[in-house]
Prior knowledge:
The chain is about 30% helix and about 25% strand. By secondary structure, the protein is an alpha/beta fold. The relative contact order is 0.12. Mean pLDDT is about 90; it is low at about 185-190.
Amino acid sequence: xxxxxxxxxxxxxSGCGKTTVTLGVMAALRxxxxxxxxxxxxxxxxxxxxxxxxxxxxxxxxxxxxxGPEFTQATYRxxxxxxxxxxxxxxxxxxxxxxxxxxxxxxxxxxxxxxVVDVRSAAESVAAIIKGFATLDENVRLAGVICNRxxxxxxRQMISDAVEQYCQVPIIGFLPRNEEISIPSRHLGLHMxxxxxLQQGGMEQLIELIxxxxxxxxxxxxxxxxxxxxxxxxxxxFKPQNPTAPVRIGIARDSAFxxxxxxxxxxxxxxxxxxxxxxxxxxxxxxxxxxxLYLGGGYPELYAEQLSNNHTMRAAVKAFCSRGYxxxxxxxxxxxxxxxxxxxxxxxxxxxxxxxxxTIMQPRLRRLGYRQPRLxxxxxxxxxxxxxxxxxxxxSAITNNTTTAGAYILDDGRAExxxxxxxxxxxxxxxxxxxxxxxxxxxQTCRNLLxxxxxx
Length: 456
């Protein structure tokens, strides 16, 4: 697809307005009638839901550190080919994160970078910031700059004059301070897109702000690619060895359980799974004829009372685990399977009780970072010694624990991953981009255990 417009919007640092600018650009381009394919650099779950809110299309995570360069390139090409243009949101500052940085991703995919600079409390010095970002790495193609939170026309002129004198990179937009347009935050980050955080006309305000103060035509010109974007949108991420009748796997999906890498779900489907969504919040019981469960992360602590009050669902999930069906749960899903959750106010509420210990919310972040769990025994996901890849980010901790974690050894030496019959659960969010065989193994385990009900 020749001249497919694609751009990576990065920031100088976290909090510079990168997400708001990215959403505004996506929304404005969509309003022009373009099919905008969104992507997110890094392991984040929340920004992709915001992207989907404004574009109407599923946003894909691009993370070479977690998923590997080949999978990252294939994911980008597969989904970019289906849109009129692609917009990738960076992570943290442009160069933060080593192999997982926005700069590394832009280099891997040969994407031009638009840099968002928060210019509050600076004027001529902005030129030094831009020049530094433009020259630090010759492999990174800094194509344009958007100055955010400009205070006045005089402020704008001072910045413009200095940048024109010292820099080769064009400024394509000056966004004035607008405190009315913002997305509220919570302890794991911004609010999810499903919650519609830009309410009361906020989206239209944001589009008007972008159209008025950013030269979108210039941005699209800078985003034009000289090389072609390979097609292949209909190619599978991998080819199952023994495609047979679909296996029904329940996916917990609602406001409490909303953290899923879409590629994992795609791989399950391609391995022969029929994905059946259900809500532990509002459904009375599990869907019929399930052969496995996948409980993703999210915010169970915010909905603990509602989850706890849904006695029939809690009982159904516990019974499903007790009968030996394969169940995989991570982070928030793992918390749901414990005996109880204690929120930040100290209120303790019963959960499913599959594991005989409790979880309690902490005032500070407990764990953050990429992880490489190595399986110490065969499991429902993969065989012993398989190295998995993922990310850990949580505020809760386990209490009253008399059960030893025994499924994984993490790369920092910690034991992780709890098992009960054919249930595997832990805090690490896994992405199967480097290990696509996991999806097939899980589906095949569900198929095999349907009749045998044996355990690993």
